[in-house]
Amino acid sequence: MPDQVFTLPIYFDYGATFLWAISGALIGARRGYDRSGVLVLALVSSTGGGLIRDGFFLQNGPPALVRTPIYLILIAAATTLVFFVGARIQKFRQFSRIVRMVDALGLGAYAVVGMQLSIEAGLSLPAIVLVGLVNAVGGGVLRDVLIRKEPDLFLPGTFTALAALASCIVFLSLEKGFGIAPNIAAWPTIAVAFTIYVISVRYNLQTRSLPGFEASDSE
After folding, report:
1. What residues contact 154, with CB distance under 8 A and at least 6 apart?
2. Rounded distance, CA 50 to CA 136, Å?
3. Closest CA relative to residue 29, chosen from 124, 99, 93
């Protein structure tokens, strides 16, 4: 395997940012937020994982969000798109599934971005997986917290965490095990996360509470 470090094309990060900004904006609009609220939710959804990644794990200077205007431009574009066509989309019976599909597309892409940055930073393999997971699901968790909802990641339901973890394993196996360039390994990685998530939604496959610890109103 050559020593050269391959750099993942930036459009993976930009694409994930745009997709998750749309997802956050759609959820904010559906909850009746005003334009500023929709914009903030889009911002948190799309950049929350990256802010955690840069601020807590990599600590390589100011977060990417504030080093270039492109992320804010993408978020503004995604939010504007929802302003104009969101009302039509939310009338669809499958609105919730549309949001989930958008999340599924961004899940693998964000995992790839987080792992590649971790590899370039020289982190250990477990740390690379951890950062990839946080980058993939962090924005969704922060989004749920802001709207005062228990994060979906913590509750029995769709295989979100499993999809993100599987994508991390696939990417590391291809990049580290077989020496495949990240820009090539990224595509099957994204496909794996999307496929697991979609299968989980399509066939209603869900995680379960621990036996004997089912949720109750009392603590």
Report:
1. none
2. 9
3. 99
Q: Are 61 and 159 in contact (CB under 8 A)?
A: no
Distance, CA of 149 to CA of 203 (rounded, Å): 25
Quick: pLDDT tens for 25-81.
988 988 889 999 999 999 999 999 989 999 999 888 888 888 889 999 999 999 999
Tell me how long the chain is.
Answer: 219
User: What is 167-205 written as a DSSP string?
Assistant: HHHHHHIIIIIS---HHHHHHHHHHHHHHHHHHHHHTT-
Are 27 and 41 contacting, i.e. CB atoms less than 8 angstroms apart?
A: yes
Q: pTM value?
A: 0.80
